[in-house]
Fold Nicotinate phosphoribosyltransferase.
Amino acid sequence: MLSAALADGSAHRRCTFEAFARRLPDGRRYGVVGGTGRMLDALERFRFGDPELAVVSKFLDERTVTWLSEYRFSGDIDGYREGELYFPGSPILSVRGTFAECVLLETLILSILNHDSAIAAAAARMVSAAAGRKLIEMGSRRAHEDSAVACSRAAYLAGFDATSNLEAVRRYGVPGAGTSAHSYTLLHTDADGPDEAAAFRGQVAALGVGTTLLVDTYDITEGVKTAIAVAGPELGGVRIDSGDLGVWARQVRDQLDDLGATKTKIVVSGDLDEYSIAALRAEPVDTYGVGTSVVTGSGAPTAGMVYKLVEVEGIPVEKRSSNKASRGGTKCAMRLARATGTIVEEVVYPAGSAEPDPGGLTAQPLMVPMVRGGVTEPGQPTLTQSRDLLAHGLVSLPWEGLKLSRGEAAVPTRFVGRDR
Amino acid sequence: MLSAALADGSAHRRCTFEAFARRLPDGRRYGVVGGTGRMLDALERFRFGDPELAVVSKFLDERTVTWLSEYRFSGDIDGYREGELYFPGSPILSVRGTFAECVLLETLILSILNHDSAIAAAAARMVSAAAGRKLIEMGSRRAHEDSAVACSRAAYLAGFDATSNLEAVRRYGVPGAGTSAHSYTLLHTDADGPDEAAAFRGQVAALGVGTTLLVDTYDITEGVKTAIAVAGPELGGVRIDSGDLGVWARQVRDQLDDLGATKTKIVVSGDLDEYSIAALRAEPVDTYGVGTSVVTGSGAPTAGMVYKLVEVEGIPVEKRSSNKASRGGTKCAMRLARATGTIVEEVVYPAGSAEPDPGGLTAQPLMVPMVRGGVTEPGQPTLTQSRDLLAHGLVSLPWEGLKLSRGEAAVPTRFVGRDR
């Protein structure tokens, strides 16, 4: 494409590409923009060095290879802030520049946004389901080694409290947390058999009584008894990772209270997802450890966003064959809300035309400048700011929007035509 | 865990950890070991440098930080070769060394194996469904940016022919292939409207008549007509990305044949998975372009393998609480096959004990030495050798094993006890 467009001169035409989702995955009620910060960082580093050029020069003409060797995005990007909600058709990113410089960004932009948005959306549902209880992301083992780090970041964006992934602590400042594994308890086995108390003693000696002991390696009731015998009633927490978590949480709570450990927290883990988290809402659980379901997007591992050319030299363009129609033209978007803050509608309208009349509702503009002339605009939100933005966004949803069941988008998207 | 185990001395006990899958995901009939080569490479680089130590020194004692700064795996690993089939309970990796040096590898090993095995297993089903037709992996946009590169590699391992991910071409030598996008055709639009012929002319001028033209941007029948008018009947291929692909493939084949382009290939793409690939088996499709479904594991984005401590100082250990029992002890495995080559049973038995009697069947040992004293053994299979191994493995399955429907593992796994 690039080679052909450079040869016939069309590569230099001014274009707008738009990233958007045709639909929300899996009957979700809302989407969460995730990964924008990572994408802007990656964009600054997106160059073709000698190793990359060596590969493409095997099949590309010299002009194209030279162009790639000098590549640096010099265009503009506007878009939804990271942590913003989105709905079908929301113009999440608007990327403007020459065809050549914009088309090259498709995989970079979509890979990051599709991945991080999918994880953030799943995680946000778990945060709602947990209703204020703590959530620890523990899924690194079930995701690609580098994707896992981005998953920890996206889960934190969505409201998780901590991660067991130390690289996410290092790279993004996500708070770290973790408990021990069964292997640590099993390690304390000798010819006389298992010695759970020795394992607990070792952990308490190293980490203090504020630590969380894993009590389900052998027998949960015995494990709790041993844990309190070793650590005393000031023990920080116990983790249960198997069995009927609701039944065990109640039983362990009673047992802990009887032993005077009334402040010892109960952490549960083991194939939890938003549905099982919600199902445990009535039980005395303090913290959920979530693994596989959050790093795999709980049934929707990709957000399914696309990156489409919508305008060429000021002319709106769109694909016209069946089923996959896109809406041409560079767009803007705003969200209408009642005075109570509850959102009502997403309005997408042509860029450069007048803002549609909000009809008595409050209009919030959604697209902010991110890149100008290839340079990231100062003042992009931090991860914490994006986390706060999402927390506020979730509160603004109509109540149906927080339902876990499959259904329609929480608010409709209205497209205002160019001829309006 | 590490800190506590170093403090009480248990960190230095000799242990075996085993990576295995309790079950196959999503009713699959077989698993595919993927990522072993990547894992061995990552293991060689797995160190804690100053940036990592700076993070952990905030909460770890000095002894542990010093130990981490000197970390280098010095133990042994045996396991199933990359590209080997596996079944529930197959001891895919056996990792031996001190507790401390082995426990630290859990996330590294599982992240890579769980990810790559999930993608390879999904891709292998697509390869079977395609029944000899070509498959191009095009899913990078729907996966994390680095995971995407591993996905291309895993799809190639499973029998895909090529990838559109150039970094996978560079990093792993996967053959590259691709076609143009709708944006390239839409780019050729001016005040007089779209000019599909100009787009095709540009592509053919740059890439020759052997190229594949995307014909469904506007009207497929017109697109095919224009494509042949521009490129002539020697055109390499046309791609259809929307509509009822089976209906269009037949219609386009007839049209191409009528235009004398009898050798022009038909490439189809657009939300294909193993089921839709199989459903197109009777249609004149030459190549499938597969995206989202392969990079998301087609419903099973992680293989769900676990990494469990199974032996401490020669004593088998196992978790005993409900539902998650593991089988203690270091293990070996062999696969029994009939004289025809069709496999019958996976046999897992205690390492160091005599090989179970194959009872007239052919016994194939499954575990090979991978690491000795922390050093990767020479002669590990190349990606191409692993690809061949899997191709042979798929042929060895009983016919039910290749069914796409959900069901039981293709062959049972028999566990031979230690007291045998």
Observations:
- Chain A has a mean pLDDT of 96.
- The first helix of chain A runs from residue 2 to 8.
